[in-house]
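Q: My labmate handed me this sequence with no annotations at all. I'd like to see what the chain might look like in three dimensions before we decide whether it's worth expressing. Could you predict it?
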Amino acid sequence: MTSSHVTTAAAARPAVVLLSGGLDSATALAVAHRDGYTPYAMTFRYGQRHAVEIDAARRVAEVQGVAKHVVVDIDLRQWGGSALTADVEVPKDRDVDEVTDEIPVTYVPARNTIFLSFALAWAETLGADAIFIGVNALDYSGYPDCRPEYVAAFEAMANLATRAGVEGTQRLTIHAPLQHLTKAQIVALGTSLGVDYSVTTSCYDPTPDGTACGHCDACQLRLRGFAEAGAVDPIAYAG
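A: Here is what I predict for the chain of 239 residues:
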């Protein structure tokens, strides 16, 4: 994919895509392209442990081609509450097949609500009627803000909270195209759409040079997804 995706004709269908630099959001961006939207990518520097995912998001945006890519600075470290934003150990070598009622320590309080709210504001200024988010409820159902009912509820709220929604001139849709796919299905979909997964990162606790640890939940799920899809993960792992 290249910036040739962005054309004057297509600019009539802008969409905001939440882009983390990970496998899922890179695939969601490709789906937005496939569906005829001109993507405007939004990434957050929110106080997460490593800047490597910001670099990955920039690479994905460049490789796939977007109308504009913005990096928004907010500081969720001020209240912590997550292994990604506080001095809390990232779980390693857990059995990711274990289904429990416990929300993982890597959950960042209200993160998707915060991100979607920023995306909603940008969508309104762009006149966009679509926001894409790469949430998934199958391979990681522990996050409350990845569930289908959450996405539906935010969409309903969004249409009550904007001028376009209140005046009835436009209805916003939250697209979660990966919602019911396994990681293997996501990999297969992205591969069919030409996604270059070598520029992405998924690790919760990469090494100082950005190499994925291979042992956190995100790494294990990613590796299993590629294996089950009969594909080879193109990124490096520390072992």
